[in-house]
């Protein structure tokens, strides 16, 4: 028999309130006969919204939720925020481009609540039909009226609200009037202002001048101002997630929870389906569904009110999967998702139906590693489906500063993480928690380290019950997603004990298969997980420093925050700054985070460091090209260093690294691997090249050659080593045998230290090519000669390289062949796809490779998917790089315009202009 009980199953997850049901089956005022079918329906309410500031407005919910004429309302963007609506209405320009945010938009937008209003068509209900109104996210407090009736409230930005409004809609004449009062934050700080001269970002304090914003509980507290985000004037208030309506029969499926238990040998999986039901009255129904094309049904008796039904493989044969298709993290296999459709019906009428995607995978969270105390400790070390996974991830602070995050943009952002060979995103403080985010991570095989809403940058949330209610709903709402790896209480320090205890209890109740951590800095649970930390560095350091920090002698093995400056392309720098600031770093640069956390002495210190390492900065194009090399060498090392010391390394093998950050919330100079407009600059390709599942790596400290193998099968072959001078001449060549590198391990196969030290110049190039059972993998390095280290200013003494660039269209791809037709190394050859009509870059553009470094005679083929409309309008490829001899180079295209990027190559003005 199916298991039925009357407990309030998950009732704390979604608020159900409002009009209710009148009578057991019929509805007061509803026309129609009993024999008319009950039809499910629904949709998103996204058009026709208006809004107005609430403070000082003589309005009421009763009036707004009616057909009465109301003056003063303006068009609103929903989902969205007041500021996004104001930008759409032309009241303000986009403050993130060419502006200082706090100089452009008044900070008073946060000091009022906002009324939202919309009218939408509703169906004529038949007997037994129920009507539901759902809000997926309101920041910060919401009060809802429908047709003049207050139907309920919702508190906290990350909690849904579902209101049954059947009796109200039954009396409507085809149109319902909805009004929502969005309440302002209880606590706010004045804005944190940028100052380039200070060398720190926005006063040097995250969370605003006092951090009091964090007392509000679940909200976007980072909008008070952080070292990666300006103060957002409306603090991202508003109806920021979709508003939908739906109809059901007398029995609603309030929630579907799917869990699977995969056998140790991966041969079978037992699926359990738990349904939370909400019934208008006691009734016998049939639970009917299908899994993987196999149908099932089970008759149950449902009591009035809330109840649950549990279906297992002991009763329903198709819930046991033989040889299941598994969900794998990116790079280890297909992230397969099963589709489960389940519904409730009686008398041949479907009351309600849901479709859920879920993945089958087996996760082990720890393995014993000897700690510095000498005792064995259960350390964070992830194994998925019996395959050890070196976590290579990225931190997201916020998906987008103004919450302008349509599904396709968000999917593109997650897709870029897949393409960069990453396997995890840490959702910092849960600030990007949406169905679209988790669905994209499911699709692309990206694990999620899911934080909740507490940070050490200010006081704890004042309303613990509200915080826990939001946490409860997040767990219930998202736990079916296979991408979620673990739950975590907050950032860099433990939340107050009531929140810690509450979170532990919620995970034990709602999702016991997953691990819960107290914070990103450490775990204080009953069975604590050890071996991880945050703490940077967050600024630029030479590659050798990252190899030192990850060399197997440093505790702990898992490092979840480490980052660097990450300068975008010249085109984007010019796009995000006003022209008057292009050559003169100032407060506009500071509002784009150039001071970072002050680790390099702020923006001015980073500029000095760049000049010391690569030579005096002559103009903005020169800064952009030198910064691409700065990006590449440091950020590649952030990932290569733990890869070089994973597996059998002792005493402390690396188990994971999460870069701070990979996704930018706004246009920025730091902490990203692509820019806000989704252009992948050199940082992206540094990550992509460092995180390949079979790789050959040059240890930035010892100059050892390391072959790394993330896969299950051993790899063997050989590594071709080439060492070259600045003139392109080959200094040395060597072949290193690779006898066999075990799965999830690495091996030092040789060293180039003596070859590099024996070179006559201060700078040499090292080319590594692994050939073997893992395929062909290539890496390229510019290296200081340890015997005469003096930075890389000598690169400017190189002769320019001669390249051949040919491009053509094949189907929906632009195919570009780049060849070094001279002798000098072609260093960091950079390609952009652009629209020939406008000259604008085509974005996002998923190049198979970019920032190519080729020795004489070497070539590379790059593929870029493009939309048909782009090809039809006219597509081109622009080329730049470290130093290119345009006269000796050849560019040509077939159906593609190929040109040199003159702006980026214009790096030698007659008079230096940068900073003057």
TrEMBL record:
Keyword DNA-binding belongs to the record: no
Keyword annotations: Glycosidase, Hydrolase
Domain Glycoside hydrolase family 2 catalytic span(s) in chain numbering: 382-519
Domain Exo-beta-D-glucosaminidase Ig-fold: from-to ranges: 786-882
GO MF annotation list: hydrolase activity
Residues making up the signal peptide according to the UniProt record: none
InterPro entries according to UniProt: Beta-gal/glucu_dom_sf (IPR036156), Beta-mannosidase-like_N2 (IPR054593), EBDG/EBM (IPR043534), Galactose-bd-like_sf (IPR008979), GH (IPR017853), Glyco_hydro_2_cat (IPR006103), Ig-like_fold (IPR013783), Ig-like_GH2 (IPR006102)
Residues of the Glycoside hydrolase family 2 immunoglobulin-like beta-sandwich domain: 251-361
PROSITE patterns: TAT
Beta-mannosidase-like galactose-binding domain sequence ranges: 65-241
Keyword Disulfide bond: no
Stored Gene3D superfamilies: Galactose-binding domain-like, Glycosidases, Immunoglobulins
Family: Belongs to the glycosyl hydrolase 2 family.
Name of the protein in its database record: Glycoside hydrolase family 2 TIM barrel-domain containing protein
Native organism: Amycolatopsis silviterrae
């Amino acid at each position: 028999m199916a298991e039925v009980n009357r407990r309030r199953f998950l009732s704390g997850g979604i608020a159900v309130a409002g009009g209710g049901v009148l009578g057991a089956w019929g509805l007061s005022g509803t026309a129609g006969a009993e024999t008319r079918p009950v039809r499910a329906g629904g949709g998103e309410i996204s058009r026709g919204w208006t809004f107005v500031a609430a403070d000082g407005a003589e309005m009421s919910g009763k009036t707004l939720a009616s057909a009465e004429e109301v003056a003063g309302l303006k068009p609103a963007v929903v989902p969205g925020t007041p500021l996004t609506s104001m930008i759409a209405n032309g009241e303000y320009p986009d403050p993130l481009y060419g502006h200082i945010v706090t100089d452009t938009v008044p900070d008073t937008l946060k000091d009022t609540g906002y009324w939202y209003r919309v009218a939408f068509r509703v169906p004529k209900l038949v007997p037994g039909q129920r009507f539901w109104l759902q809000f997926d996210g309101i920041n910060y407090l919401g009060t809802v009226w429908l047709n003049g009736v207050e139907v309920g409230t919702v508190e906290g930005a990350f909690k849904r609200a579902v209101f049954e409004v059947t009796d109200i809609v039954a009396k409507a004449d085809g149109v319902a009037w909805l009004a929502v009062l969005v309440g302002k934050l209880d606590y706010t700080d004045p804005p944190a202002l940028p100052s380039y001269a200070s060398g720190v970002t926005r006063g040097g304090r995250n969370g605003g001048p006092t951090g009091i914003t964090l007392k509000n509980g679940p909200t976007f507290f980072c909008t008070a101002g952080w070292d990666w985000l300006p103060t957002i004037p409306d603090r991202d208030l508003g109806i920021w997630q979709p508003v939908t309506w739906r109809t059901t029969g007398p029995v609603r499926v309030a929630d579907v929870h799917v869990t699977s238990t995969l056998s140790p040998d991966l041969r079978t999986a037992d699926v359990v389906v738990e349904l939370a039901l909400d019934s208008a009255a006691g009734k016998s129904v049939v639970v009917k569904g299908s899994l993987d094309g196999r149908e099932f049904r089970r008759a149950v008796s449902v009591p009035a009110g809330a109840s649950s039904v549990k279906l297992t493989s002991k009763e329903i044969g198709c819930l046991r999967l033989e040889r299941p298709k598994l969900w794998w993290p990116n790079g280890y296999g297909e992230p397969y998702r099963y589709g489960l459709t389940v519904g409730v019906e009686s008398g041949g009428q479907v009351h309600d139906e849901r479709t859920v995607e879920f993945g089958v995978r087996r996760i082990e969270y720890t393995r014993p590693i000897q700690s510095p105390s000498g005792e064995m400790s259960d350390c964070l070390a992830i194994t998925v489906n019996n395959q050890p996974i070196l976590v290579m991830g990225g931190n997201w602070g916020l998906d987008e500063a103004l919450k302008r995050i349509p599904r396709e943009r968000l999917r593109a952002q997650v897709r870029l993480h897949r393409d960069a060979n990453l396997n995890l995103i840490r959702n910092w403080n849960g600030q990007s928690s949406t169905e679209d985010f988790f669905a994209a991570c499911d699709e692309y095989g990206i694990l999620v380290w899911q934080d909740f809403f507490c940070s050490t940058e200010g006081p704890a949330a004042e309303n613990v019950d509200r915080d826990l209610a939001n946490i409860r709903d997040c767990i219930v709402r998202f736990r079916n997603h296979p991408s979620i790896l673990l739950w975590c209480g907050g950032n860099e320090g433990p939340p107050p004990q009531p929140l810690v205890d509450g979170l532990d209890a919620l995970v034990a109740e709602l999702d016991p298969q997953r691990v819960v951590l107290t914070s990103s800095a450490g775990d204080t649970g009953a069975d604590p997980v050890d071996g991880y930390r945050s703490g940077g560095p967050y600024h630029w350091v030479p590659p050798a420093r990252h190899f030192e920090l990850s060399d197997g002698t440093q505790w702990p093995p898992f490092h979840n925050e480490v980052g660097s400056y990450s300068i975008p392309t010249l085109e984007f720098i010019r796009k995000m700054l006003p022209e008057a600031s292009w050559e003169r770093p100032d407060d506009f640069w500071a509002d784009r985070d150039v001071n970072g956390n002050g680790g390099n002495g702020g923006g001015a210190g980073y500029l000095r460091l760049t000049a010391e390492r690569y030579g005096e900065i002559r103009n903005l194009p020169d800064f952009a090209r030198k910064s691409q090399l700065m990006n590449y060498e440091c950020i590649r090392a952030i990932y290569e260093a733990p890869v070089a010391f994973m597996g059998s390394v002792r005493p402390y093998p690396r188990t994971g690294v999460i870069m701070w950050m990979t996704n930018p919330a706004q246009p920025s100079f730091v902490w990203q691997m692509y820019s806000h407009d989704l252009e992948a600059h050199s940082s992206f390709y540094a990550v992509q090249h460092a995180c390949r599942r079979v790789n050959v790596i040059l240890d930035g400290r010892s100059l050892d050659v390391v072959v790394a193998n993330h896969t299950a099968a051993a790899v063997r072959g050989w590594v071709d080593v080439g060492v070259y001078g600045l003139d392109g001449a080959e200094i040395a060549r060597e072949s290193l045998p690779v006898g066999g590198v075990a799965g999830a391990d690495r091996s030092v196969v040789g060293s180039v230290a003596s070859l590099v030290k024996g070179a006559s110049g201060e700078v040499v190039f090292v080319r590594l090519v692994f050939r073997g059972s893992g395929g062909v993998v290539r890496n390229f390095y510019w290296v200081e000669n340890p015997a005469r280290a003096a930075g890389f200013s000598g690169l400017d003494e190189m002769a320019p390289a001669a390249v051949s660039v040919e491009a053509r269209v094949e189907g929906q791809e632009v195919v570009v062949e780049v060849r070094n037709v001279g002798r000098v190394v072609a260093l960091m050859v950079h390609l952009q796809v652009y629209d020939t009509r406008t000259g604008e870059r085509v974005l996002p553009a998923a190049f198979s490779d970019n920032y190519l470094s080729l020795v004489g005679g070497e070539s590379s083929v790059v593929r870029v998917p493009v939309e048909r409309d782009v090809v039809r309008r006219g597509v081109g490829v622009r080329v730049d790089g470290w130093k290119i001899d345009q006269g000796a180079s050849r560019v040509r295209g077939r159906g593609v315009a190929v040109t040199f990027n003159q702006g980026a190559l214009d790096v030698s003005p007659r008079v230096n202009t940068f900073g003057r």
